[in-house]
Structures are given as C-alpha cells and as structure tokens.
Design goal:
With 213 residues, the chain is of the alpha+beta class. The strands form four sheets. Strands 2-1-5-8-9-4-3 form a seven-stranded antiparallel beta sheet, with helices on both faces. The protein has a two-stranded antiparallel sheet with strand order 6-7. It has a two-stranded antiparallel sheet with strand order 10-11. A hairpin with a 2-residue loop joins β3 and β4. The longest helix has 11 residues. The two termini are 38 Å apart. The mean pLDDT is 95.
Length: 213
C-alpha cells in the first residue's frame, strides 16, 4: 500500500513514521534551566550521527508551537545529559513522560537519584548504565511542528560491568538491557534477543556463492 506523505496531516504522518521506523533508541534527557531547576523527559527520535566529532541528534516536538521544558532548558544553557533507558528503569522513564507543570521535578516524582556530570554543569541519572554529557551545537527548525537538536558528546559514563576493554573502547552492549521504542500508544521492545552476522568482504561473499556456471 502506498502512502503519499503530502496528503497526510501532522498526526497521521507522525503515526505512520513512528510505527514503521522501529525500534528506536530512547534519549532520556536531563536538563536544567538557567536557575538550576532540573527537568527529565524521554525522546525516541534519537540517534548518533558521527563518531569524530561525536554527534547526536534528537527530534523534539513543539506542541502548539511552544518549546517543551527540555528544549527551553537546552536553549537557555546549551547543555544536557542523555541517559539510557533499561528494562528495570522503564516505569521510572514513563513517570518522567507525564506532562507535569514546568516547576515539578520529574526525577523526584520517579524516585530517581542523580549524579554530577564532569564536563557540563548538569546532572545525570545515577542508576542508568550509560550517560552522555552533551553540549549544544545547533537547533534546526523543522516548521511548523518540531526541531532537531544537534549536540556534541563531551563525556560518556558507562557502568564498569559493561566495559570489556576500556583501552579499545570495547563495550558489552548486552549488559545494558536497553529498551527501544516501538509504535504508539505505549509499545516498547527489549534488546535481549540478539544474533551475530559477520560483515563479509567481497572475496568472502564470492566464496559463499560457490563456483559460477
């Protein structure tokens, strides 16, 4: 079935893409305003787009044309932390997605403790096995409903038990027990079911094809 995107409104276009581009990693963003008030919220339009420089991007909606708290804080300070959502932290993450007023600390509502960052002034979620300290590079307006936040990763915090070889940056990703976002409303997936597939050279691929006729 063909869907012509130009014929769809915002709600249906978003629903179609968010239901088909799956699974998606979740950026659990912890930010703070100019006065140091902390905010936490999850965003599933997220990934990394370069290793050197280390660039990540997050899509953030602007309901009714207004910035969400995370985006307002990022504009104000230029800094934020991205935390990984694991299966054990799923309910806490869901609590931080509740649309509390701006003066409510979602981390306190979710019963989450924070730890200080090292390269930025903000905080990170202490119980998350992975946290990225990020500094804003640019905000790209995607009219009329959203923006893309482009940031450079300044530091990475990883639980010791997830690190296989620090010198080579070899990480045991399976130990994270991360979850990903699926379709709305409310569907997620675990990353515990994995398989290995070797990337082939041209010579290896040709060898597997057998002799040609």
């Amino acid at each position: 079935m063909l869907f012509d995107m130009e014929t769809l409104d915002l709600a249906r276009s978003y629903k179609l893409l968010s239901s088909t581009i799956v699974p998606r990693p979740i950026a659990w963003v912890v930010s703070q305003d100019a006065n140091g008030a902390v905010n936490a919220a999850p965003y599933s339009l997220f990934n990394f787009f370069g290793g050197h420089p280390p660039i990540v991007c997050i899509g953030m909606g602007q309901p009714k044309g207004r910035d969400k708290d995370s985006l307002a804080n990022i504009r104000a300070t230029g800094e934020f932390a991205i935390n990984m959502v694991t299966a054990s932290l799923a309910q806490a993450m869901n609590t931080t997605a509740v649309p509390f007023p701006a003066d409510v600390n979602e981390l306190e509502k979710a019963g989450l403790e924070t730890a200080p960052c090292t390269r930025i002034k903000g905080r990170r979620i202490a119980s998350s096995p992975l946290a990225l300290e990020c500094r804003l590079q640019q905000i790209i307006d995607v009219q009329p409903s959203s923006v893309i936040v482009v940031a450079a990763v300044q530091a990475v915090h990883i639980d010791d038990e997830c690190v296989k070889d620090a010198g080579r940056c070899h990480i045991d990703s399976a130990r994270f027990a991360a979850i990903g976002r699926m379709e709305s409303p409310g569907w997620y997936t675990r990353t515990s079911d994995r398989f290995v597939m070797q990337q082939l050279s041209v010579e290896q691929w040709e060898e597997r094809q057998g002799p040609s006729n």
